[in-house]
Amino acid sequence: MFPTTFSPVRIGPLELKNRLVMAPLTRQVAELDGTPTAEMAAYYARRARGGIGLIISEGTYEVDELSCKTYLSQPGIANQKHVDAWRMTTDAVHALGTPIICQLMHGGRVSDPRCLFQGESAVSASDTQSEGWVLYTDTDDEKHDRGVQGDWPKVTFPPARALTEAELGKVADGFAEGAARAIEAGFDGVEVHGANGYLVYQFIHPKTNLRTDDYGGSAENNVRFAKMICQRVRDAIGPDKLITLRLSQDGVDDFMGAWPGGVEYAREVGAALADCAADALHWSSFDWTDNRDPNSDVPMAKAIGEASGKPMLVNGGIADGPGAEAVFESSTGVAAVVGRPLFAHPDWPHIIRSGMDYPWAEFDRKYVIQPPVDLGVTYPMDRRVPDWDPDLSKRR
């Protein structure tokens, strides 16, 4: 079944046994100080056992400054303690024959204000303020599933200030430092998160980038910061580790976001990334076939891939074998990136390859918080109840 999906592929320096990639999936189950847990190792190992070709970790903060940390209980790769703790995960995944890369992210203007230090402001491409709010802080179901008692407020975002050009270099160096620590922790490479509303996205999207210097005003300028980050990461980890760059139109505070100019802007972004130090680009969406451009039916990932000449990892709405195979039949990408199905069904690759009908569970946030894990890695599973302070005025 699905011969292309289950054929090997080389992406940058990595040889994958198949073309299925686990998407980076935010969970917020690390220790409060960002230290990865044994449960996380069991969670990733279970997906590796399930037959996935490559795992991209959940978004991980690379340094603890300039509003980089985005969520409470987000994992970090910012210090030696983080490095040592991540090794349980990378060792468990590698023991099952699967490579894993670490997604490095910076929250920018959509960082939870409780993650900011006292007196620290959020930062972004420009002086702006997001109209959204921190994911799931307004849902009683999330409170229930996490076992939280007491207040559960809706957390909105504070005003953000524009980063100076000097600070852009500092942030890029932070990505490079985090990447070097990720390799020390056993990861096979890193992904630079330039999607879904976070800092690098805030530069790439014309809606949030209002700059008039070399880092704004055109597609070429808007991706300049992302390219700087990728180059410094490459300089830090060398040619033998994978680097991917994730892109999207929508964000955590703008789920129906669309690039002005649609497919034409996508082509301009792709052309500007042709000489980027990343080995591959990763398109993130809710449905990769929907480009949100009324003037074109070309998938965004295909437009970017053709313009950049780089391999495309394609994410969005892939729920079964035919959905994965369609990515390849349409010549849109070299790998299909799957997220939500893997929360409830860690054996998703094996299931679709069998060709049997399967009673898929509908996606539910409870699988994010307490998914099936590999009890051969840790037992019993310690389900942690987060000690999250509901006082929105608090800073670290």
Automatic annotation (TrEMBL):
One GO molecular function term?
Answer: FMN binding
**All residue ranges annotated as the NADH:flavin oxidoreductase/NADH oxidase N-terminal domain in the record:** 6-356
InterPro entries reported in the protein's UniProt record: Aldolase_TIM (IPR013785), OxRdtase_FMN_N (IPR001155), Oye-like (IPR045247)
Entry protein name: NADH:flavin oxidoreductase
Organism listed in the record: Sulfitobacter sediminilitoris
